[in-house]
Amino acid sequence: MLNPKTMKETPANTIAIVHRIARDYLGTQKVTLAIAIFFMIVTALTTGALAKLLGPAFNLLLPSPAGSPVTATPAIWILPLEVCGVLWLRALSYFIQQSRVDALGERVVTAAQHDMFDSLVRRDLAQLNALHSGSFVSNFLYDATLMRDAIAKGVAAVWLESITLIALVAAMAYADWKLTLICMIALPGVAWAMERIGSSIRRATKRNMDETGSLSTAIVEALEGRRVIKAYGLEAYTSQITNNRLQLRLKQLVKLAKRRASTVPVTDIFMGIVVGAVIWYAGRQIAHHHLKPGDFAVFMGALLLAQQPVRNLSQLWPVASSGLTAAARVFAMIDAKPHIVDASDAETLTVHHAPAGGGVTFNNVSFTYSADASAPAVRGVDLDVKPGSKVALVGPSGSGKTTIFNLLLRFYDIDEGSIAIDGHDIRQVTLESLRRNIALVTQDPILFDESVATNIALGRPGASRADIEQAAHDAAAHEFIAALPEGYDTRVGEGGLKLSGGQRQRIAIARAMLRNAPILLLDEATSALDTESERQVQEALTRLMKDRTTIVIAHRLSTVADADRLYVLDQGHVVEAGTHGELMAKGGLYARLYHHNETTESPAAGLVQA
Ligand SMILES: Nc1ncnc2c1ncn2[C@@H]1O[C@H](COP(=O)(O)OP(=O)(O)OP(=O)(O)O)[C@@H](O)[C@H]1O
Ligand SMILES: [Mg+2]
Fold first, then answer.
1. Average pLDDT, stretch 263-284?
2. How far apart are CA 464 and CA 495, in angstroms?
3. Helix, strand, or coil here: 323?
C-alpha cells in the first residue's frame, strides 16, 4: 500500500525507527510478545477451520441423495461439537492475544514516557526555556498513544490478520480457486482507497496535534496567570480565547472522525462488488453442476469471515504511519542531549568550608544569551570573592546580576574569560560536584506540591527528620511549620501557594541550610517582604552565611551595606567595586542608588530605569 507520495511523509528512516522500537521497547517484553503471537496464530487458524467446517455443516442440511435420514449419520453429533469447540478455542485465544498485545502496548507507552521525561529534566536551562510547555505535554501524552496503537496494530496485522486472511484464502481456494481469483481483483482497489484515506488522516492528525498543543498551552497559561486574570477581570476574555482554540480543534476532530469512519464503509463497497460477482458466477457454476453447494458455503463463509481481517489490515497503514511519525518525534525528544556536559577529563570538585576554601574568581568573563541578543548580558567582568567573605552584586534591573549566578552554576557556558572556584576552572570539574558545592536561594522560592519536610529535604535527599527540623530551626521556620495543620507533613499546595511569601522563603533557606554547601548564592532573597518577615529572614540568612562564601544580589541596599565588597553592575559591566564606605565616598552610581533607596524604600532597579 505504499506509494511514493506518502513515502515522503513518513520518516525516511522507517526501518531504523521500527528497529529501534523493537530493540528498546519490545526486546524487554519477549515473553508477552511470544504469548501474544502464539495465540494470534491459534486465533487465525481456528478462524480458517471454522470456515472449513461450514462445508460439512451445509451438506448435512441438504437432503441426502440416498434419501436416508440425516440424523442417522454420526456427523449430526460430531459436527456441532466440533463447531462449538473451535469457536470456544477461538474465543479463548482471541481474548489472550488481545489482552497481551494491549498490555504490551501500554508498557511500551509507559517506558517511552519515562525515557522522554528523563531526557527532559536533564536538558540545559536554555533548552528548557525554549520548550513550549503545552506542546510538550500534549506530545508527551499523545505521541506515546499513537505509538502504542501502531505497535498493537502492527503486531496484530502481521501475526493475526495476515495469517487469518491466508487461512481463509486457503479455505476459499480449496473450495474453488477460480472464485478465489475473482475476489483478488478487488484487492488493489481496496488498497488504493485505504491509501488515499490514510494519507489524509495523517495530515489531519498532524494539524490536530498542533491545535492540541496550543490548547494545552492556553490552559496552562490561564492557570499560571490566575492571579492576573482575576485582578484584571480577564475571565471572559480568557474563556473566549480558549473557546476559539477549542472550536478550531473541533473542526479538525470532526474532519478526522469522518475520515476514520469512512474506512469501513469503503471496504464494504468493494466487498459488495466482490460478493455480487461471486454469487453471480457461483450461481452459474452450480446450475451447470461445476460447483457443489457445500463448497460454495465454505467459500461464502470464508469470504464473509475475511471481511474483518481485510478491514483491520486496511486500517493498518494510517495507524502505522501516524504511529511511526509519532515515534520519530518521541525518539527525537529522548535523544535531545544537553550541550553543557562534563569535560571528558572532568574532576570532582571538593570545596572546603571557609576559611579553608570557597573562593570564587571571574576573570574577564563575557556572555551573550543568544545570537539575536542586541548586547552581551555581561562583558569583561572580573570578580574576586575571598573564601568566607560576603560579596554583594548591585545594579539596575537587567544589569547582569542574575546572569552572573547562572554562569557560576554553569547553567550557561561563558563565551570568553574564565570562572574558577578555589583555582579550579568550573568547566574542568563535573557539573554534579560543582552544583553540590553551591546552594542557591532564588528570588521566588520554588516549592513543590509535597510536604514541608520533603520540600526542605530536597536540599539533601535522604536527610533525616532530625536534620530537617534542625535546618528549619536555623531558618527561623520551625515555629510556623509546627503551627501548620499537619506540621512538617503538611502539603504546601501547588507552587507552595498555601504559604506566605516569607514562609516560602524561610523554607527555601532551610533547604539551603540542609544542603550545607560552602558557597551560597542569594538572589534578592529579601525583596517583597514586610519588616517583621524580613527581620526573621535576615536572621536566618546571617546564620546560613556563617562559615560560607556568600554572593548576594540585593535590591534593598541597606541589607548589604555590611558586605566585605560590593560590585556595582551596569549594562553587564562592573562599573564600581569596593566597600560601602568607599563607594559612598566616591559618589558614583552606588551612592546615587543608595540615596534613592534610602528615600523611597523601593527597589533600586525601578528608580534607575525611570
Ligand atoms: N534567559 C534569557 N535569555 C535571553 N536573555 C536574557 C535571559 N535572561 C536574562 N537575559 C537578558 O540579560 C540581561 C541581564 O539579565 P539579568 O537577569 O542578569 O539582569 P538582573 O541584573 O538580574 O536584573 P533584575 O535586577 O531585574 O533581576 C538582560 O538584558 C536580560 O534581558
Ligand atoms: Mg535578577
1. 84
2. 24
3. helix
Cα 350 to Cα 393: distance, rounded to the nearest angstrom: 25
Give the separation between CA 181 and CA 568, rounded to whole angstroms: 88
For cell 459488495, the residue is: 272
Q: Is the CB of 368 under 6 A from ligand 1?
A: no
Give yes or no: residues 282 and 196 share one domain.
yes
* Distance between CA atoms of residues 323 and 147, nearest Å: 4
CA dihedral for 205, 210, 216, 219, sign (positive or negative)? negative
Burial track 369-379 (b if 16+ CB lie within 10 A, e otherwise): eeeeeeebbbb
pTM exceeds cut of 0.90: no
373 and 301, same domain (yes or no): no
Distance (Å, whole) CA 565 – CA 579? 5
Closest residue by CA, ligand 1 atom 28: 398
Of all protein residues, the one whose alpha carbon is nearest to atom 18 of ligand 1 is 400
The ligand minimizing its distance to the Cα of 399 is: 1
Does residue 18 sit in the same domain as residue 160?
Answer: yes
- Specify whether 64 is located in the same domain as 140: yes
Residue located via cell numbers 544589569: 399
Q: In this structure, what CATH number is given to the domain that contains residue 65?
A: 1.20.1560.10
Cα 362 to averaged position of ligand 2 atoms, centre (Å): 18
478 lines ligand 1 (CB under 6 A): no
Q: Whose CA is nearest to atom 9 of ligand 1?
A: 403
Q: 490 CB under 6 A from ligand 1?
A: no
Domain that holds residue 595: 359-437+524-530+548-610
Cα(398) to ligand 2 centroid in Å equals 7
Q: Which atom of ligand 1 is nearest to the CA of 603?
A: 25
Whose CA is closest to atom 24 on ligand 1?
397
Rounded CA separation 528/505 (Å):
10
Contact (CB, 8 A) for 1 and 195? yes
Ligand 1 centre distance from Cα of residue 592 (Å): 22
Q: What is the pLDDT of residues 420-433, one digit of tens each?
A: 999 999 999 999 99
d(CA 191, CA 197): 10
Task: Using a pLDDT cut of 90, give the percent of the chain over it.
Answer: 39
Ligand 1 pocket check for 312: Cβ under 6 Å? no
Q: Taking the C-alpha atoms of 284, 285, 286 and 292 in order, what is their torsion angle to the nearest 10 degrees?
A: -160
Residue 603 Cβ contacting ligand 1 at under 6 Å: no
483-508 pLDDT per residue, tens: 999 999 999 887 777 888 888 888 98
CB of 399 sitting under 6 A from ligand 1: yes
527 phi, psi to nearest 5 deg: -70, 160
- Residue 397 in contact with ligand 1 by CB distance below 6 A: yes
Angle, helices 501-515 vs 465-474, to 10°: value is 120
Atom of ligand 1 nearest to the CA of 396: 25
